Amino acid sequence: MTDLTKVKASMILASARFWVIIVVLYLTTKNLSQEQIYQSIGFYYLASMIFEYPTGVIGDYFSHKISVIWGYLIIALAMILFVVSTTFLNITLVYVIYAIGAALISGSDTALLHAVSKNFKNDMSQVRIYSTLISAGALGVGGWLGSIDLRYPFYFNVVFFLGAIIFLLSVKSKNQEKTTGNIFALAKHGISYTFSVKELLHIVLVSSLISSFYLNIKWFYNPLFLALDINLKFWGVLGGISILSIMMGTYIYKKVPEKSIYLYMFLFIGSLILMGCTNLLWVSMVGFFVVNFIRGFLETKIEVDINRAIKSEVRASVLSFRSFLTRFGTYIIVLISGYFLQRYSFQMLMFILAGIIFVVSFYSLIVIRKFELIRVHDLK
User: Fold this and answer.
1) Would you put residue 72 in left (φ > 0), alpha (ψ -120 to 50) or beta?
2) Total-model pTM
3) What rounded mean pLDDT belongs to the chain?
4) CA 175 to CA 74: how far, in whole Å?
5) What's the angle, vertex CA 64, arms to CA 295 and CA 133, rounded to 5?
6) Do the beta carbons of residue 113 and residue 173 sit within 8 Å?
């Protein structure tokens, strides 16, 4: 088995999230109120933002492989602690541990794949397709496991993360070449490099904005399905289909010629508005599936574009900085969503988010499109 296959396998295994579908229900068995549960989720996003940078730079300073292995190991530990924790404080501390593990993985897994890949666009697309497929399967299996015992989804995730570690242990990985004196200097260098490359900066900004929304989308399922008066027994099916829609978007991205980012963003923002039309069931459902379908296009395209614009010695640092901005955006969207869902409606929330995304990304899209046109001209 080649190093490339091992890295791909580890990333695909680590993408399974059996516990996501039952975590809120499970936490209610710990005598946490709904308010405390969502407070702990908000605290996780805040902790993720705090630990994301420069923790994610460890991969650039020491080894991407070591950083990812430790990240997987810490998240596996967090899964076990979820099972044994019984209080709001303990659950909150578990989220902190999980955030540290996620920060160690962030950026370094992509940089490790890039280091062993000869065709990053193709390999990244493959990883996204199979990761999405296993995520959809884990969602369904996690619900079934949870119906037997709510602890089982967490145990399954521990097994999958340990399997991902086993694949990485034999990957040949040399220590990173240190271009600066210490890890904090390298973190600063990663940020300054991002701001010094105009195209990269605006791709990072747009990527962070889009990813912030998609990290929150799982929390929108509940209010959306309630607003559409969909029977509870269909929620898991619709959630699984939405994940498969992401995979289909990623697959088609590989097959079609490169398109302007304008097209992808137009479809993304338009589908948000359609999803918010909760007075029209089928219109809202079309928007719901298109939002997930276009995710496969947008995130894969941006991943390829951002890695093309980065020089290798700061790759994980830049990607980690992107993740830091994403976590910040995610936290802001959580606050906005809670405010509007409590006072207004899901429809109003989607219109507000569509407007915010359009306004915030407008200038960056113009800059990115300018560089796209330059590349097209150079190829002629």
Assistant:
1) alpha
2) 0.69
3) 83
4) 21
5) 30
6) no
With beta carbons less than 8 A apart as the criterion, state whether 104 and 55 touch. yes
Average pLDDT over residues 349-355: 94
Environment class of 356 (CB within 10 Å of its CB; exposed 0-12, middle 13-18, buried 19+): middle
- Burial label for 34, CB within 10 Å (0-12, 13-18, 19+), is exposed
Measured distance CA(322)–CA(316) in Å, rounded? 10
pLDDT of amino acid 180? 47
The identity of residue 264, as a single letter, is Y
Closest CA to 228 of 270, 269, 286: 286
Which segments of 88-234 does DSSP mark as H helices, in order?
A: 88-105, 108-116, 120-148, 152-169, 183-196, 198-216, 221-227
**What is the C-alpha end-to-end distance of the chain, expressed in Å?**
40
DSSP letter string, 108-141: HHHHHHHHH-SSHHHHHHHHHHHHHHHHHHHHHH
How far, CA to CA in Å, does 140 sit from each of 21, 176, 312?
Answer: 8, 39, 38
Task: For residue range 167-177, list pLDDT tens digits in order.
Answer: 999 888 655 55
Please answer whether residues 85 and 94 qualify as being in contact, where contact means their C-beta atoms are separated by less than 8 angstroms: yes
Residue owning tokens 């993408």: 15
Structure tokens belonging to residue 168: 């990485």
- From the number of C-beta atoms within 10 Å of its C-beta (0-12, 13-18, 19+), residue 378 rates as exposed
Answer for the pair 284, 224: CB distance below 8 angstroms, yes or no. Answer: yes
pLDDT digits (tens, 9 = 90+) for 1-45: 888 999 999 999 999 888 877 777 788 788 887 667 777 877 888
**Under 8 Å CB-to-CB from 251, ≥6 apart: which residues?**
125, 129, 296
The overall longest dimension of the chain from CA atoms, in Å, is: 64
CA distance 146 to 257: 42
Residue in the block written with tokens 């405010």 = 339
